[in-house]
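Bug report (template v2)

What were you trying to do?
Predict the complex of my protein with 2'-deoxycytidine-5'-monophosphate.

What happened?
Run completed; filing so the output is reviewed.

Input:
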Amino acid sequence: MPSSPITIAIDGPSGSGKSSVSRAVARRLGLAYLDTGAMYRALTWWCLDQGLDLADQAAVADAARSMDLSLSTDPDTATVQVAGTDVTDAIRRTSISSRVSEVATNLDVRAELRRRQRELVEALRSSHGGVVVEGRDITTVVAPDAEHRILLTASEEARLARRTTELHGSSTQEQLAATRDQVVRRDRDDATVSAFFEPADGVHGLDTSHLSLGESVSAVLDLVEHGAPHRIPTPDPDLQES
Ligand code: DC
């Protein structure tokens, strides 16, 4: 555990590698892990389970305030429970992914979930020495005072290919087309309420398009330890295999 508490804030669009990288960094540094996207997903699950109309902004915001949400912040077993039901797997299904932006663009919902996120970050700094917290607005709004703030980006092509392989195990043309809505359309909708394509002032941008998971993790650890990535491999066209 680091000697004084640290918050590592990591934002990025869908498929930028942020969840895998954040978990691995938390594990390596012995910190807690907070997935704020899981909170928006859990609320979406809860509203649909309760038969709420997601277009009813006031009802959805009320649900955000009353939701009994419990998150495990262990990077190895990040489970999510709503009102005692384990929804860890259910919130990753397409039925939730395709609707979550309707909830995440509700400004009263954002106010409530941001309040809960700030509370959780403070609690985890005291209990675990710090936290890696990932989302879309962490570096800018939830934890702008975090000791380390990083925005992971990747080309649309790389993000789409990663998410497709994650969901289907391969990435044929049909699978890519089916996943496009979950990556491109969802990011476009989410970007109406948070800026996560360009790093804000003081936020380190890291393009993971050509980095493996291990290389992305090393680059983030370097940023945390040295303030700059030292080990990012620079692609040298003369050394590329044909
Ligand atoms: O990272 P993810 O795909 O699990 O996020 C789910 C949704 O929640 C995504 O559509 C954007 C939204 N989100 C957000 O608006 N702000 C955050 N801090 C985290 C996620």
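What did the reviewer find?
The mean pLDDT is 91. The first helix runs from residue 18 to 29.
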